[in-house]
Design brief:
The complex is a heterodimer of chains A (371) and B (325). Chain A is built from 14 helices and eight strands. With 371 residues, chain A is an alpha/beta fold. Chain A folds into two domains: 297 residues, Rossmann fold; 30 residues, no CATH class. In chain A, the strands form two sheets. In chain A, strands 1-7-8-4-3-2 form a six-stranded parallel β-sheet, sandwiched between helices. Chain A is globular, with a radius of gyration of 22 Å. Chain A starts with 11 loop residues before the first helix and ends with a helix. Helices cover 36% and strands 20% of the residues of chain B. Chain B has twelve helices and 14 strands. In chain B, strands 9-11-10-13-14 form a five-stranded mixed β-sheet, with helices on both faces. In chain B, strand 13, helix 10 and strand 14 form a beta-alpha-beta unit. Chain B is globular. The termini of chain B are far apart. Classes of the chains: A alpha/beta (371), B alpha/beta (325). Chains A and B meet through helix 13 and helix 14 of A and helix 11 of B. Bound molecules: thiamine diphosphate (TPP) and magnesium ion (MG). Magnesium ion (MG) binds next to strand 5 of chain A. The site of magnesium ion has 6 residues of chain A, from strand 5.
Chain lengths: 371, 325
Amino acid sequence: MASKTQKAPLDVKKSLQTAEEQFQTFQILNEEGEVVNEAAMPNLTDEQLQELMRRMVYTRILDQRSISLNRQGRLGFYAPTAGQEASQLASQFALEKEDFILPGYRDVPQLIWHGLPLYQAFLFSRGHYHGNQIPEGVNVLSPQIIIGAQYVQAAGVALGLKKNGTKAVAITYTGDGGASQGDFYEGINFAGAFKAPAIFIVQNNRFAISTPVEKQSAAKTIAQKAMAAGIPGIQVDGMDPLAVYVAVRDARERAINGEGPTLIETLTYRYGPHTMAGDDPTRYRSADLDNEWEKKDPLVRFRKFLEKKGLWSEELENEVIEQAKEDIKEAIKKADETPKQKVTDLMSIMFEEMPHYLKEQYEIYKAKESK
Amino acid sequence: MAQMTMIQAITDALRTELRNDPKTLIFGEDVGVNGGVFRATEGLQKEFGEDRVFDTPLAESGIGGLSIGLALTGFRPIPEIQFFGFVFEVMDSIAGQMSRMRYRSGGRYHMPITVRSPFGGGVHTPELHSDSLEGLMAQTPGLKVVVPSTPYDAKGLLISAIRDNDPVIFLEHLKLYRAFRQEVPEEEYTIPIGKADIKREGKDLSIITYGAMVHESLKAADELAKEGYSVEVVDLRTIMPLDIETIIASVEKTGRAIVVQEAQKQAGIAANVVAEINDRAILSLEAPVLRVAAPDTVYPFSQAESVWLPNYKDVIETAKKVLTF
Ligand SMILES: Cc1ncc(C[n+]2csc(CCOP(=O)(O)OP(=O)(O)O)c2C)c(N)n1
Ligand SMILES: [Mg+2]
C-alpha cells in the first residue's frame, strides 16, 4: 500500500528539468542569413555552398511542379516538401554515396540527390513498380509508407555495414509523429546496443497530419529521447542548412569511428498540405503560425547569406529554375514512355519462383491482358 | 428519413452511441479537430468534448493497448485505425490480447471494443492503404468481423458493434464511403451481428459476398437477368461468425453458388464459406461452388488495380461456369 510518510530522496522533477535543459537548438545561420555561431561554421568551399543552394532551389521547383502535376492527374501520391529543404537536402549533402538512406514517404528529394532518377520518383508517385526498382549502386530504399518501420530496419542496415567493414552509415528519416511509434524507440535502442553506425533524423515539422507535436508526448524535445537509448541526441534548427549539415557530418564521423548512432531532431515546417489526397491544413493550423514559419524559410536565409558573400544572384537562381523545369519535363516524358504495368508483372516479382497457384493465375491474367 | 452516404451514416451511428452511453470513447490518429482523414468523426469532438473524442500520439499499438486498458476500467472504446493496412502495428493488441482477454481471465474481464478502420481498393492509394486483411481477423478466435456494404447497414451494424460486449472489428470499404446515398433513419436502430442480408432474391444461383463486392455482384445479377438467369445475392455483412442459416437456405433453394471476395484467393473468407456449404448442403448442389477473388500477389501498385480487383465481369464469367455446369 502506498504511504506518504517519507520525503522523496531525490527531486525527480528537477532532474528531469535539468536533463531537458541540455537540449538547446543548434543554429549557425539565423533568419537573416547571419552567422551566429562562427565556431561551428563548416569549411565548405564556395562551390559546395553554391551546390547546396542549387539543390534547395531545384527541389522547391520540383515540389511546385509535382503539386501541379498531381492536380492535373499526371502524378499520384505526393507528400509536399517545401519548407523542409534544409532539413532534407543538407542532411543528404553530408553523406557519401556508400551511405544507405531509409526514407519516409516525404523524403523523395534525398533519394533523388542520392542518385534515384527523377522519372523513377515520378513512377513511384504514379503507383508503378519500376519506380521502386532502385538502380544498382544507389544505396536507398523506396519511401516507407508505414511510419516507423524504416527506423528498426536502419539499425539492421547499420549493423550490416559494420559487420561488412564498410565505412558507411545508415541514415533514416521520420517525423514528429513517427517519433511516437514503438519502432522509433526500438530502432534507436537497437542501434545503440549494437553501436551500429546509424543516423536517425526526426524532421519535426510540428504536425502529424493534423495532430500538433505537443500532443505526441510530454517530452519537451524529441532529441532528448536519445537519452533513454543511451545515444547522443541533438536538436537542430531545421531551417538552417549549415546547422543541419554540421550535425549530420559530425554524427557520421562518430558513426564511422565506431562510436555508434545519433538522433537528430530538425525543427522545420511543411508549407503545403500533408499530402495531395484531400488534406486541408486550415482545419488545424493558424495563418499566424504559417506566417511565423514563412519567415524562417531556409531558401530565404541561405540566399541572403550567399548573396552577401557574392556567391548567389538572380541569374544563378534562374538558371537553376530553368534546369529544374527542363529536367522535370524530360522525366515526365520518360515516365510516360515506360511500359504500362501489368498484373502479370506483379506476379512475376512475388517470389524467386512462382508457386503453383500463381502460375495458374499467371496464365489467366496473361490471356486477359493480351486482349 | 435522410439521404446519407456511408460515411455520414457512420458518423450518425457514432454520435448516437456517444449520446446513449457516457462510457463510449472515440480516439485515434486525427479523429479530433480534423474529424478523421475521411471525416468519419467530423464534429464529434466539438459536440462531445475532448474527454470523449480525442487524438492519440501516432502509434497503433498504443491505440490498441489504450483500448484494452480503458475497457478494463469500464469504458467502451471505439478506436479508429486510420487505414487497416496499419493493422500489423496493432496486431498483438488485437489478435494477441483483446481477442483472448475474456478467455484468459476465465470470463472475469471482457473487451467491449469496436475497432473501426477503412480498407479496400480502387481509390489509388499508396501501399498498405487498400489491402483486404479481414481474413487475418476472421481467423483469430475471439473476434467478430463486420463489413457493411450500404449506408443503412453501416449505421445499424455499427451501433450493434459498439453495444457488443466482445471485440468487433468494423471494416469500412474506402470506395463505398461516398459512392452513393441511401435513406437512413435518423432514429437509432440496430442490425444484428452475425445476420446476413439477401440483397436480391433469385432462384438459379446464389452469389455470396460482402463489402464492395456486393455491388459488383448486384451488377452482375442485373446483367445475368437479361440472359434469363435469376440470381440471388447474399450480403454476409458479418464475416465472422458467418450466418450459416441464411447461406444454407439460399444454396438449398438455388442449388448453385459462387462466393465473391475482393481479397486474394488463398486461405480467404470465400474458402471458408465454400467449406461450410460443402459440410452442410453438398446434396443440394447441382454444381461445384466456385470463387471469385483477386490474384495472389501483394495488393498491386495502384496503376494495375483496375485489372487486379475483381469486378462484375469476373463475377459473370464464374457465375456462368456454375450456371451451365
Ligand atoms: C503506421 C502508420 N500509421 C499511420 C499512418 C498514416 N499517416 C501517414 S502520415 C501520418 C502523419 C505523420 O506525421 P509525421 O511523422 O510528423 O511526419 P510528417 O508527415 O509530418 O512528415 C499518418 C498518421 C501511416 N502511414 N503509417
Ligand atoms: Mg510532422
